[in-house]
Amino acid sequence: MKKLLLIQFYFLLSLNVFSQAIIVDHNCTKPEQIPQDYLHQVRNNLHIAYGHTSHGSQLITGMNAIESSWGDDFAFSSGLINDKLEINESLGGDVGYYPQWVNNTTVFLEDETNSRFNVIMWSWCGQLSSLSEQEVWDHYLTPMTQLENDYPNVQFIYMTGHLDGSGVDGTLNVNNEIIRSYCVENNKILYDFADIESYDPDGNYFLDRRADDECRYDTNNDGSRNGNWAIEWCNANPDSYLLTGSCAHSEGLNCEYKGRAAWWLYSRLVGWEGEITFIKEKYVSDWAYFNSLTNELLVRNSFSGSLFFELFNLSGRKIDQGTFTNRLSLSHVHSGLYFVRLYDGIESQVIKIRK
Question: Which residues contact residue 33 at a Cβ distance below 8 angstroms, ignoring those fewer than 6 apart?
Answer without folding.
Answer: none
